[in-house]
Amino acid sequence: MSVDPAGAALSNDSRMTIWEHLAELRSRLIKVFICVAAAAVLGWIVYPYVLEFLRRPYCDIQPNCDLLALDPLEPFTVRLKVSAYIGIALAMPMILWQVWRFVTPGLYPHEKRYALPFVLTSLVLFVFGAFLAYVTLNPALSFLNTIAGGNIETQYAPDKYITLILYMMLAFGAAFEFPVLLVALQLIGVLTPRQLLGWWRPALVIIAVAAAVITPSQDPISMLALVLPMTLLYFGSIAIGALVARRKRKKAARAATPTGAS
User: Fold this and answer.
1) DSSP string, 178-246
2) What is the pLDDT of residues 26-80, one digit of tens each?
3) What is the pTM of this model?
4) Which has the closest alpha carbon to 76: 47, 50, 53?
5) Are 186 and 245 in contact (CB under 8 A)?
6) Cα separation of 171 and 129, whole Å?
């Protein structure tokens, strides 16, 4: 009697109790926390260089780009905040890997081979989204500085400015993970390319609304910079899902041919 390895994998996972799942989750979270903490220490060391990098878009539009701290604790809290964000950014490969390892026990063996592409694609898209937010910050700041008129001189507080740019980079990076989720849902059969293609009109509305909500600066330049690539990534995820589905159909047809011939 043959044994279906995929079914065996699911059977083994189904025997896990809720406490075993919670213990597994705790183990993954501890590993993520240790990795983020270690990376944050490095972030504390390289903070001066990162701060100079983050100030560059502001300095490009205003000669006097010194950040004005009115709270004696603000420089310290800003350094803590930047170090924490650096820790999260540097630990992102480990975070994505731990997320995947937590999910894989419930997947079929043939689905687990997508682990490396999942982690690499998620990492590349996150970095690209964060970089796009950084590039967009310059015209966004120019728009925000001039929208109220030429009689207002701006000088930003370090906490407000750093929070704005880091939130924008995180928001863009997180938004760019959405196509990975769509491809994953197509791979496991929850969604189909035909369904996603049929939903393209409401999907564009959702993308536009989401861009308006998650963009911290709320300026039209940043929102447009997020909507356009998100739209392309949406249709790109449909194309990838269609290619994978086509490959599966061809593989199934080749597997069925000898049986039908006999």
Assistant:
1) HHHHHHHHHHTTSS-HHHHHHTHHHHHHHHHHHHHHH-TT--HHHHHHHHHHHHHHHHHHHHHHHHHHH
2) 888 899 999 999 999 999 999 999 999 998 988 888 878 888 888 888 889 999 9
3) 0.74
4) 47
5) yes
6) 8
| Token pair listed for 28 | 């993954």
For 152-174, write each residue's pLDDT tens digit. 777 888 888 898 888 888 888 88
* Four-point Cα dihedral 159, 164, 166, 169, nearest 10: -170
Tokens of 180: 């990975």
How far apart (Å, rounded) are the C-alpha atoms in residues 219 and 250?
A: 47
Q: How many CB atoms lie within 10 A of CB 239?
A: 12
Cα-Cα-Cα-Cα torsion 230, 235, 237, 240, nearest 10 degrees, comes to -150
Across 118-155, b (16+ Cβ under 10 Å) vs e yields bbebbbebbeebbebbbebbbebbbebeeeeeeeeeee
